[in-house]
Amino acid sequence: MLTGNIKPSSFDKENYKGEIIESIKNPTDTYLVQGAKKSISKWMDSQSSGYVYKEQLNIGHATWALIFKDATATTPVYQLKYKVLFYKKPEGGNMFSAYTVAECSPIPVEANLSEWERDNYKKVTIETQKYMDACIMELNNQLPRLLKK
C-alpha cells in the first residue's frame, strides 16, 4: 500500500534530453559567432567613434533542439527550436549591475521526424542557418542598446 502524497508527473518536454545526433554539431560557435563578430565590427567602425569598451559583449550558450509537439499524435510533429542570448554589463557599472540582455528565439519550424532526418538532417541545417541569420539581424537591432556608453 502506498501512502503519502502522489502527484501527477510534471514532465517538461522542453527539458527532456533525447538522443544526440553525432553527425551534426551545433553551428553557433562557428557560423553565428563569426557573423556576430562581423556585425559588431561594422557597427563599431561606424558608431563607436573610437570608444574602447571596458565591458565585453558576450554570446551565451545557444540551445538548439528538435522537440516533439505532441507525443501522443499518430505521426508526431517536431519543432526545431533555437535560442541564444547576447549580454553585457553596462559601462561604468559595478559588480551588482544587471546585465543588459537581448534574447533571440525565432519562431520554431515544424515538420515530422522523417522530414527532419532526410538527407542527413539537411532540413535541420537549412532552418538553423535561417535562425542564426535572424539572430544576427536581431543582434544588429540591439547593438545600440547593448553597446550603450
From TrEMBL:
This is DUF4468 domain-containing protein. It comes from Enterobacter cloacae subsp. cloacae (strain ATCC 13047 / DSM 30054 / NBRC 13535 / NCTC 10005 / WDCM 00083 / NCDC 279-56).
